[in-house]
Design a protein that fits this description.
- The radius of gyration is 28 Å and the shape is elongated.
- The longest helix has 17 residues.
- The strands form 4 sheets. Strands 1, 2, 3, 4, 5, 6, 11 and 12 form an 8-stranded antiparallel beta sheet that branches. The chain has a 6-stranded antiparallel beta sheet with strand order 7-8-10-9-14-13, sandwiched between helices. Strands 17-16-15-18-19-20 form a 6-stranded parallel beta sheet, with helices on one face.
- The protein has about 625 residues and is of the alpha+beta class.
- The chain has 20 helices and 22 strands.
Length: about 625
Amino acid sequence: MTIIRYLKSCLPSVVRCLSLQKKPNIRNMSSTARGLRPASVVILHRSLTPAFEKFCQANSGPLPLLGRSEPGQWTLPTLDTAPDTRTRSLQFHKYESGARTGSLASLEEHSEQLKDMVTFFLDCSFSPEGALEKVGVPRRDPAGHSHVGAYKTAVPCVHVAGFCCPLVVTMRPIPKDKLERLVQVSCSMAGEQGQPIHIGDPELLGIKDLSKPDYGDPLVCQPGDVPVFWPSPLTSLEAVISCRTPLAFTSAPGCTVMTDLKDMEAPARCSTPEGIPEVHLISQNPLHYSITSASAAQKIRELETIIAVDPGNRGIGHLLCKDELLRASLSLSHAHSVLITTGFPTHFKHEPPEETDGPPGAVALATFLQALEKGVSMIVDQRALSLFEKLVEEAVEQGVLKTQTPILTYQGGSAEAAQAFLCENRDPTSPRFDHLVAIERTGRAADGNYYNARKMNIKHLVDPIDDLFLAAQKIPGISSTGVGDGGNELGMGKVKEAVKSHIRNGDVIACDVEADFAVIAGVSNWGGYALACALYILNSCEVHGRYLRKAVGPSRAPGEQSWTQALPSITKEEKMLGILVRHEVRSGVSGNVGMEVDGLPFHGTHTQIIQKLVDVTMVSM
């Protein structure tokens, strides 16, 4: 039984009264009509019924469809004692061929047309005000005398037949220290409908000015507030406009029908780890928070613990920062185009001088990013370009990597050159990549040189890819992650003081260039594997998935087959290491050409870590 068929079976006593709200106070309205729930109304010609139902089902976040009438049954057949809604005080908007042509207090003059029309009821029961009160945030009224403002976004709803419109959202300013608690309470009160679809900079939604809503009046953000956005049923007005039907009606913004339809959500599930949201800051410029479930976050913390094993006794435990893997993977989950760099030429007396730590982790991450349909490129030293082209080509041939990924080089020269490389047409408002990742990549020290763990300067073998990470710090919209196991890798500048204090030769070799997120691992490859696994966990999480897609479009099935196949595995990583060995790439610590990384045998040490990561990842969410 589909949900719409089930809802239709509930409809015989749906409409009990009508309400014209002077202020957007659904909580108070509910208290005066206990057990009833408000709904907005859309009235369309019967021929559009299948398309609009499908449109609502495809965009259930902004358009939570409670049910619909039969054609012409505006008051519904069992409500003989109820007042005729065509003559009551509810305000309606009238649309003709996609244009609003009037506001009406009555539809009586359109009785004949209504005989061929169907009424849809969209749930309007959720309002953030109840959650605000619970967490102790004072209620703020809009600047004018209308309802709280709503904004058209640049986020498209899923197109169905003639219905094609942008998502409309409503916003509440929330003090930063109340943010996570507010989101948790909001979700516990209303289930999915209470979950925000964006937290942070409104321009990420295409909203240019919060003081100029498309509907209603604005709420003013105070210093320390964070804008939080929820999907709005006013999206239905844009849908009606988009279909350009000859005649349609909607309830006006702020006006609702009261119904006794039962809540089809199950808010109680938000009390379980699968439903409780965690909120994490992933970018300061632009301001951007992400959401995932507590259970998904805990799994990623388990991954972080697994890779933090220190087989070389280097003291990496002193470098660890809690939840760096979680925040890095959340940021990557939001990214559209990722640039990955690797390559540490520690064996400067050999050809090639690269080591076996780095490339496998980079390829593993690239593989999973491809499965998520993100843009992926790699950037390496010019002198190593031919080697990496062969490595990638053979990785594709052996099924380690799905498709070829572009391999770039950068020899730099200035901050301007770095910005030009990262941005389309040198325009810092149009970055080519929105996340840079370094996995076991040589990092520049404070004196401008590049050192291996033994304090040997290998600057002559290294291109200034560090400059791209420095430039990214000044370009809004580009985040960065560094993965390292010794403190001299690109991105480890974030923990350089700990490196200087606790890592052998740290006062000399510590990388001075920081990344936004520093993922520390016993072997850097493990960090690449863990990022891929964390992305699987996040994209299998319903809470995070809904946030990513802004509550429009269908949810992706947890653990899609392509994702599962793209995860790191012992078989694939053995193949990748075998490719490196055939090209005489050496182990980092021992210098051996063989099936080992950082002097540790693949079979045994590395296979155990890979299996542990996959086991945690694949446990049912």
